[in-house]
Amino acid sequence: MKRTLLYALAFFVTHFAMSQVSLNQVDDFEDGSTENWVEAASSAAQAENISSDGPAGVNDNYLRDYTTQAPGGPGSRMIIRNLTQWSGNFTAAGVESVTMDVRALNVDVTVRVSITGPGGKFSSSTGIVVTAGSGWTQVSIPIAGSDMVSVSDGNDGGSPGTDINATLSGVTEFRILSNPSPSWIGEVTDAEMHLDNITASGSLSVVDFENQQLGFSISPNPGKNKLNIRFLDTHNDLTVEVFDVLGKRIYKSALTRLESSINVSNWKSGVYLVKVSDNESTKTKRFIKQ
């Protein structure tokens, strides 16, 4: 009996450790499964793995989530959840944002992240609109303590948020949903949303990257028509990505020269984050478009 209990305990500890969130983990759905992303058991609109037409095109798998056409009934809300690898201590893991590729098929969706744990339920203050028919869009949603707001129970019990730090240290359920306002539940809608490359990322802030080795400068800053990027040294496999203040990626390109220029004349005025990566590091700078 004692040995059996020890085996059971070892299995539980191993399973629990394997299910904990970790920095840079990615759900890309290439194994053909839904990777533990589920709808409520009562929903008639269960998520499914689609084997082709992801962001990379042919043979790139993605996750399909959709709602029923029964207003207010099971499966009528745009929401999908994970209780396995997206549970655990986000603070200790250093996970402060979630990046994913999203496609809205027939109706615009406002993508948010919601979590629950010992401190109650919280939802991201940032909601990113993905326009129907616009194709795949990469979005990044910050989920640090200052980025989350307390939300009410919804319709499945539990407690509203009272302590975001406690919840981030012990997330028991992680949700991706569509709602114009922070919420624990998705909006009632007749919609279809596709997801891929759901990634546990670090902070999008500029300060976190200032001490890394990848050196580059941007000019003019502020700028009106062009954004010039100049590297201090040669690097391999350089990529530049630009995000707006809501975390929506608006530009991505490979860089092959020490100096490159991006046409920004059609960008809206405001603040953008310019993120440059190579095989070893990432660095981000703030750019102001006049």
UniProtKB/TrEMBL annotation:
<feature type="signal peptide">
    <location>
        <begin position="1"/>
        <end position="19"/>
    </location>
</feature>
<protein>
    <recommendedName>
        <fullName>Secretion system C-terminal sorting domain-containing protein</fullName>
    </recommendedName>
</protein>
<feature type="domain" description="Secretion system C-terminal sorting">
    <location>
        <begin position="218"/>
        <end position="288"/>
    </location>
</feature>
<dbReference type="InterPro" id="IPR026444">
    <property type="entry name" value="Secre_tail"/>
</dbReference>
<dbReference type="Pfam" id="PF18962">
    <property type="entry name" value="Por_Secre_tail"/>
</dbReference>
<keyword id="KW-0732">Signal</keyword>
